[in-house]
What does this fold into?
Amino acid sequence: ASRSEGARRPECRTATATAAANALMILCAAGMQFDGCDLSRATLSPADGAWPADRPFLDVSGGVFLHCNLAKAKLNHARLEGCTLEGSVLAGADLGGLQLGIERILDAHTTYNRV
It folds into this structure.
């Protein structure tokens, strides 16, 4: 099979997306902030049907993405809880199964004192 034929196979797309997602997660975990990055058309999700719906493929929770271009990026099955996306563009991005929001910080059974 030629290189272009291999790139179209779902298992090849998923392997490449896994490497890209892992690199992004490692950089976010290390505290890297992304400012003005062009991630447009980036494939950061698995091939269709290649990932369990109940688990995120990409988890960059708490990441900082300022003025980034994520237009038409494949972000399905991603967790972006607590992310800063100020000024970032998500036009046309694949957001199927995307998890947004703020992670639960306060436990309902904890007593808090005023200072």
In short: The beta strands are 33-35, 58-59, 64-66, 78-79.
